[in-house]
Amino acid sequence: MSERLAADGIVMNFAGLRALDQVSLSLGRHEIVGLIGPNGSGKTTLVNVLAGALKPNAGSVRIDGEDVTAFPPRRIARHGLVRTFQTVRLFGTMSVFENVQLGALGAGLRRSKATTIANELIELFEIEDLRDVSSDALSYGQKRIVEILRSLATGCKYLLLDEPAAGLNEEESEHLLGQLTSIPEKFGCGLLIIDHDMNLIMRLCHRLHVLNQGKTIAEGTADEIRANPTVVEAYLGSQATAGADAAANPTAANPTAANHTVTERS
Amino acid sequence: MKMPSFAVTGRKLLPLIGIIVVFGVIAVITTILGIPLLDRIMTIMFINLIMVLGLQMFMGNSGLLSFAHVGFMGIGAYASALFSIPVAAKAMSLPALYPALAGIEMGFFPAMMCGALIAAAFAAIVGYPLMRLSDTASAIASFALLVIVHVVLSQWSAITNGPRTLFGLLKYTDLWTAVTWALIILVVAFLFKESSLGMKLRASRDNVHAASAIGINVVRARWLAFTISAFVCGMSGALWAHFITSFQPGAFYMTQTFIVLTMLIVGGPRTVTGTAIGVLLVTIATEGLRAMENSFSVSGVLPFETVGMTEILLAILLIFMLAFRPGGLVQTIELGARRRVRAAAIDTSEAELSRKA
Ligand SMILES: Nc1ncnc2c1ncn2[C@@H]1O[C@H](COP(=O)(O)OP(=O)(O)OP(=O)(O)O)[C@@H](O)[C@H]1O
Ligand SMILES: [Mg+2]
Q1: Per DSSP, what are the bridge partners of residue A66?
Q2: What is the mean pLDDT of residues B341-349?
Q3: Which residues contact B283 (CB under 8 A, 6 or more apart)?
């Protein structure tokens, strides 16, 4: 099938550090794929490469067969690949509605169409009461939702979410899970999700891709990954069992945003 | 779904209507009083309002600092003069003028439009590479641009009369010409801010990476805004030129740049209402201080020279604003729209609190 986002043999070097080493990953338009791994394993770097914010030292990124490796982020977005940021990036002086509307405007749609799309999304995700609130005034969880809506408003075919559940409480992240699940069928949009919340990841994703120190160490379904000894050793550790019925204690699998000293480059 | 979107439009228009009424009333009062000095001060204030609104359209929405715009005002002034000075007067005003231009004589409106178009065309050409630079680099480059414009205006004697005074313009601009255009540009600046282009620009100002990540062409948006704002600044130059009627290139250099930037920064570059208020307040402050400066220097009550006191105090005002309220008096929510938006934010956080409880 050519309707895919496909990264092939990506190598990304930072001064003296190989952040990504021959990573290949693909995402279909009706799939939810999880990208997991310990802190510093290269997940965000991979998203930056896919979205055009970083140019890889080797390898290629293709969207529906077209090589977009050298494209700037703006053109990649116009080709249907949109990402969110590990540290939420909203348009702070503007309202929730305007933020979502801008997604559609960014995709080149007319104002009236953008308005309709923004209203529909806000209604669909049941945040009508936040519509005219300045996005600066939102809680962290609300900001994450708005960032996702803004991305969906572009009509993207592939959406990359960098830790959408970080900083959310249990109830909020359960709510998010429900909403993310339906995105592929409702929007015809494949999801690549990075998160440390194994409860969310295991229940949401059709497939998982595990990175460790820039290398792919495993790929497969949630069950296969949980049973994979390499993954358990490198990342899941004692969480493997927690992951099975992680609903009991989802935060255990979350090494939290506190130690994210990596400043995002994009 | 129709109702709420209409309500929002109504609410967004309120600040604009308010500021138009305020400035309309100022114009009417000035006319009724009929004091020539006040009339002159107010006419220049309205022309400055156009200039600063032009600058706001670019600077306020894109978040990029520009020192170049007074240069566009100068281009608008000189270019419109070139088209409007009567043929008979041109031989005197511009003795070395190229024959091809010597026969041109237009009415004020077409001359102003030509002047503004030339300013915009110049901005479009030089702006294209400029908009690719980073924040700091583009600010410095814009300063270099101002210097270039100034040197060209001072040296291209054939069409500017060089550093000497250019005269021979007819006085087309009066108070109400300036008022009419200022009110039109107020509406334009407001609509521009709310337009798709304005929204994309503000998005890039708030977060340039997020703007690119949703497909916004930031360079293109900045470039279009730069060009449009140069057009407006060019118009203000034409209006000013046909009010003052004789001037030198120095009128469009450091002093004017400083005044214009102070007006914008004090008022609040991100809002149209703030920009307008900044123009009003800085005009009042400048004129008040200048009156004091003059009476001090005439009466000699102070033991030191007071020449230049106005500029110094204005500079101190600017420093205080930058230190204590860097976004200007009216920061991001237009004056008059403030309470509703704040209330909405508080409502929801309260609703959330009660939901959590
Ligand atoms: N712009 C950069 N310059 C230099 N090194 C970088 C840069 N971005 C990331 N790195 C390094 O690359 C490695 C991978 O970082 P990355 O942010 O991709 O990890 P991650 O898997 O997203 O981690 P986390 O779970 O903490 O978000 C880290 O060692 C990081 O320090
Ligand atoms: Mg990361």
Answers
A1: A63
A2: 44
A3: B41, B44, B45, B48, B263
Indicate which atom in ligand 1 lies nearest the CA of residue A196.
Answer: 25
Calpha distance B304→B297 (Å, rounded): 9
Q: Which residues pair with A218 in a beta bridge?
A: A210
Which residue bears the tokens 């994703």? A205
| Cα–Cα distance, A34 to A219 (Å, whole number) | 10
Nearest CA in chain A to B207: A91
Chain A interface, best mutation among B214, B330, B348, B353, by max A CB count within 10 A? B214
The one-letter amino acid at A246: A
Residue B215 has φ and ψ, to the nearest 5°, of 100, 5
Which of chain B's residues have a Cβ under 8 Å away from the Cβ of A129? 347-348, 351
Burial call A82-118: b when 16+ CB within 10 Å, e when fewer: bbbbbebbbbbbbbbbbbbbbbbbbbebeeeebbbbb
Closest listed residue to residue A81, CA positions, set A200, A237, A192: A192
Q: Return the CATH number of the domain spanning residue range B10-356.
A: 1.10.3470
C-alpha A239/C-alpha B270 separation (Å) is 49
- Please check the confidence at residue A113 and state whether its pLDDT lies above 80: yes
Q: What is the DSSP letter of A95?
A: B
Burial A164-176 (b: 16+ CB within 10 A, else e): bbbbbeeebbbbb
Cβ contacts from A onto B, under 8 A: 105
The share of chain B scoring above pLDDT 70, in percent, equals: 92
Domains (range + CATH), chain A: 4-86+160-258 (3.40.50.300)
Give Cβ neighbours of residue A174 (< 8 Å, ≥ 6 apart).
Answer: none
Question: Is the backbone of residue A216 left (phi > 0), alpha (psi -120 to 50) or beta?
Answer: beta
CB of A185 less than 8 A from some CB of B: no
* pTM assigned to the model: 0.88
> Rounded to whole angstroms, what are the CA distances from A229 to A90, B151, B155?
39, 73, 78
Which residues in chain B have Cβ-Cβ distances shorter than 8 Å to A95? Answer: 341
Going by alpha carbons, the residue nearest to atom 9 of ligand 1 is: A45
Q: Where are the domains of chain B?
A: 10-356
pLDDT band at B295 (very low <50, low <70, confident <90, very high): confident
d(CA B335, CA B267) in angstroms, rounded, equals: 11
Residues facing A10 on adjacent strands: A23
User: Is the beta carbon of A47 within 6 A of some atom in ligand 1?
Assistant: no
Cα separation, B69 vs B58, in Å, equals: 9
Q: What is the rounded distance in angstroms from the CA atom of residue A178 to the CA atom of residue A195?
A: 15
Please check whether residue A89 touches B, CB under 8 A: yes
Q: Extract the tokens encoding A68.
A: 């977009």
CA A162 centroid distance within chain = 4
Contact B275, B268 (CB under 8 A): yes
B166: closest CA among B158, B175, B176? B158
Query: Considering CB atoms only, which of A91, A119, A154 is closest to B215?
Result: A154
Q: pLDDT of A141-174, one tens digit each?
A: 899 999 999 999 999 999 999 999 988 888 888 9
Sign of CA dihedral B74, B76, B82, B84: negative
